[in-house]
Write a structure and sequence with these properties.
about 15% strand, 2 domains, about 40% helix, membrane, Glyco_trans_2-like
Length: about 325
């Protein structure tokens, strides 16, 4: 059983919901067996239509709910929660994550085993209980983007390391990660220029530049129902491309930004065309083509990341992501 909340919790668990009513009960319900030793508090904010907030309020009375401000993005919402948090450690948890028993206990033990670190993250499992390497997060680079054109991303090399034993890593997934409050405050939290995707990568890059280190903890395991179902959804892929370009715009020189755009576009176009050609014979390829279609055919919708005037959010209504495809089709020049 989770140690009860106190006026001075050691862990503050931050959850940002977005139309997550079908999943949130499993997520919050899994915390009790995941954290059996440490006083904690759970803070929640709803970026969606309010249905998730209503369910949380009715089902979990001990959860601290912040008033919704609409769909303000993952970074801004987590920053709001962090400002209200009392814990020495901030644990970011996606609403579509189901923690395994003692997962948070393992992270807390890692703060002792790897005490020089500033962040500790878990291992995501697939439906068969094996490490889900497809759920990895990596720092974008020109060489990695180029490697995608060969059909095998450099980011996949060596990903099994740290899944069976603890490993020091460059970046951790924001779906299940715990950070020392001091490090979070030093970095100023997440950069709110990101709306979705790459915001945690940006945070870890900034922390690393200040000398911080991070560990992936093999015993801290969870299931992540990523994307709430459809793995290669067009809107998810579109936001991922915009997140990557936002990272490039902030951290890279102009020529590297342009090269990153060309490589991302070429990779998406390649997958779209191959998916169309092979779709008759291989069932997965029509989904691949569909997922990459808007990135390939409407590159102007994402090439400027989340720039307020030219970026994705100026062409897509974040309140209704299902309409993102139609919005993106209104812009058809590179």
């Amino acid at each position: 059983m989770t140690k009860p909340e106190t006026s001075s919790p050691r862990i503050s668990i931050l959850i940002v919901g977005y139309n997550s009513a079908a999943l949130i009960a499993v997520c919050i319900g899994s915390i009790a067996e995941a954290n059996t030793k440490t006083a904690c508090e759970i803070l929640f904010i709803d970026n969606g239509d309010g249905s998730t907030e209503s369910l949380v309020a009715a089902t979990f009375p001990n959860v601290i709910i912040l008033p919704s401000r609409g769909n303000i993005g993952f970074a801004a919402a987590n920053n709001l929660l962090a400002k209200q948090a009392k814990g020495d450690f901030l644990l970011l948890l996606n609403p579509d994550v189901e923690l395994q028993p003692c997962a948070i206990d393992a992270l807390m033990q890692a703060t002792l085993d790897h005490s020089a670190a500033s962040a500790w993250g878990g291992v995501t499992l697939d439906a068969n209980g094996a490490p889900d390497l497809g759920n990895r997060v990596h720092i974008p680079s020109i060489s990695e983007l180029a490697s995608r054109l060969t059909g095998k991303s450099q980011a996949s090399i060596g990903e099994a390391r740290g899944c069976i034993s603890d490993a020091r890593v460059e970046v951790l997934s924001g779906s299940f990660v715990m950070l020392a409050r001091e490090a979070w405050d030093q970095a100023g939290g997440l950069d709110e220029r990101y709306f979705l995707y790459c915001e945690e990568v940006d945070l870890f890059v900034r922390l690393a530049s200040k000398g911080h280190s991070f560990w992936r903890v093999a015993a801290a395991q969870c299931y992540h129902n990523i994307g709430h179902g459809e793995v290669i959804s067009p809107i998810r892929m579109l936001y991922r491309a915009a997140g990557t370009m936002q990272f490039a715009r902030i951290h890279w020189s102009r020529w590297r930004q342009e090269l990153a755009f060309l490589l991302l576009w070429a990779g998406a176009l390649q997958r779209f065309l191959i998916g169309r050609m092979l779709g008759r014979w291989r069932p997965k390829w029509p989904r691949v083509a569909k997922g990459h279609r808007d990135i390939a055919l409407r590159p102007s919708s994402w090439r400027y990341g989340y720039d307020p005037e030219r970026g994705l959010l100026s062409k897509v209504n974040p309140e209704r992501p299902a309409n993102a495809k139609n919005a993106a089709q209104k812009s058809d020049t590179v």
